[in-house]
# Entry
Amino acid sequence: MTLLPTPLKPVCLSPGDAVAVIAPSSPFDREKFQKGLSVLEEIGLRPLFSDKIFETKGYLAGPDAHRARLIHDSFADPEIKGIFCARGGYGALRLLPFLDFEIIAAHPKVFIGCSDVSVLLNVFYSRCNLVTFHGPMMESLGMATQPTKQALIDTLLSGLPVSVIPDNKMVIRCGMSSGIVSGGNLTTLCHLVGTHYMPDFSGHILVLEDIAEQPYRIDRMLTHMRMAGCFEGLAGLVIGSFKGCGSLDEICRIFDDIFSDDAIPILAGFEVGHDEPNLTIPFGIRATLDADNGRLLYSEPSVAG
# Structure
């Protein structure tokens, strides 16, 4: 049995903590951005950002080296206790050759985002062993429902283990298993296939979500990743929101078909991804997926006291 390294947990956030806001992918809507900042302030955090995050280069929030530098600066700054992302879009993939993982590992901090930021969540975990967080970003946080805000608080500020129980669960495959949780946006993860940055999901509970993809594209991406060996040895599957991708029934049928030969628990209906609520969940620590009772239970806190 291979012993996994102890996860590198960031320190639990506390009211009054300074948190950096960065733009690692696409430019963002400034009005929505300001509303998101207000929510961080409402929950007691102190958002800080440089005017450099407003830079643009076409569909990117500035040049690659510039966006990578903001990440490095945020991790290295001793005043900063956590890092939030402005939005996804596209661009995080381009940052990987520019990142200094030694800087990131030397200064473990809360790092949260979703969508295109799934690249960074998974690579920070796989390269640095850093526990990261799949959750809301500034563009959506200002319009977030109370469950989204409460999950953010419970996960990042309470210091307690997380329990995620979907309101509208759909059991695709019964059973129970434990494993380290990782994953995120299906399209984004699919673009890591064939690169040196593709994580090893063996023994993991994989969370997947997406937006505005036709069912046949969902099928194509899952088939491609399966043929590439990405799903070998999975411990379980958690299916988040697939907004604008067809009905949940249709999405579940696709997953049931692609994973028909896998004796692993598969549970759909989680409020994780591009819809509301968008619950915050940790990546990089162990949890138990109990498909029979419809819940994902973490066995330890995701942050250090």
User: Anything to note?
Assistant: The chain has a mean pLDDT of 96. The chain has two domains: 18-144, 163-298.
